[in-house]
Design a protein that fits this description.
By secondary structure, the protein is an alpha+beta fold. It has helices spanning about 5-15, 55-70, 85, and strands at about 20-25, 35-40, 45-50, 75-80, 95-100.
Length: about 110
């Protein structure tokens, strides 16, 4: 998370809406471990990584929905070994990603890096 905090803090100072996506479960092989994070803003900003390939594009779209609704969401992505590389999950497997709106506090409040 420390690698994405500078960008999140910048976005918070700019009063941007932010969604935070976190890998919470992995079955089989996955490019990113549990705890990996990606942050997304309503105006197209994105930092961090939760998987790669098509999965990150899908997480970006899901995050936009979370920002619109204000409701957190748990999403699952999985593929067979045969189609794994085309969607960014090496050697098959499944991942669960929790996407939540990041609470916006006063502009001067930053998350310590």
């Amino acid at each position: 998370m420390r690698d994405i905090l500078p960008e999140i803090n910048l976005w918070r100072r700019q009063d941007k809406q932010i969604a935070l996506a976190t890998v919470v479960k992995v079955w089989g092989s996955a490019p990113r471990p549990i705890g990996s994070k990606m942050a997304v803003t309503t105006d197209g900003g994105m930092v961090g990584s939760v998987s790669g390939g098509c999965v990150e594009g899908a997480v970006y779209e899901e995050a936009q929905g979370v920002l619109s609704s204000g409701q957190a969401k748990l999403v699952e992505f999985g593929v067979t070994d045969e189609t794994a590389w085309s969607v960014g999950l090496s050697c098959g497997g499944k991942i669960e990603i929790f996407i939540e709106p990041l609470a916006i506090g006063p502009s001067s409040t930053e998350v310590p890096t």
